[in-house]
Amino acid sequence: MKHAVLLFFIIGSTFSNAQESPKNDLYDYDVEERLKELGIELTEPSEPTTYKISLAVKVDNMLYLSGNVPFSKTKNYTGKLGKDLTTEEGYEAARLVGINHLSTLKKYLGDLNKVERIVKVLGMVNSEPNFTDQSKVINGFSDLMFEVFGERGLHARSAVGMAAIPFNGACEIEMIVQIKE
Fold this sequence. Notes:
The protein is α+β, with helices and mostly antiparallel strands. The protein has helices spanning 2-16, 31-37, 87-109, 134-149, and strands spanning 56-59, 62-68, 115-126, 156-162, 171-179.
């Protein structure tokens, strides 16, 4: 009986000392302030006009983001990795896709602090047949998600090579995000 009481005391005190999440926020920092610290400016994403698809679809507390390519008003990354672009340029291309996805998340959620977790990422790299550093390219995206969301930015991921990407983009990345309702 003495051991049961001691065990109850230990378990009870463990739960009572657990840290609770802030009431109005999932983070101990403001994600949007973090973007400013990183020097990242989001843009207004435009909905696709050539086909009947959406940039994001919400199902329950999950947001599924369509594939996005590394294009912005100031920079476009086109061509094949291993021929037209280096692995480092591919990394930067994937990072730009990450910024594009953050812009989409901001548009659909209104507040990036509503992101509970980056769940799954599929990175497709426009690659020459002998190019095998697809994972190093998509690290540009994954590193950005961790920089912005911390541990909540860690995700399951696939990084694969493709013979072609729409608009000859260097890569295309889609993701699944768990959100706070």
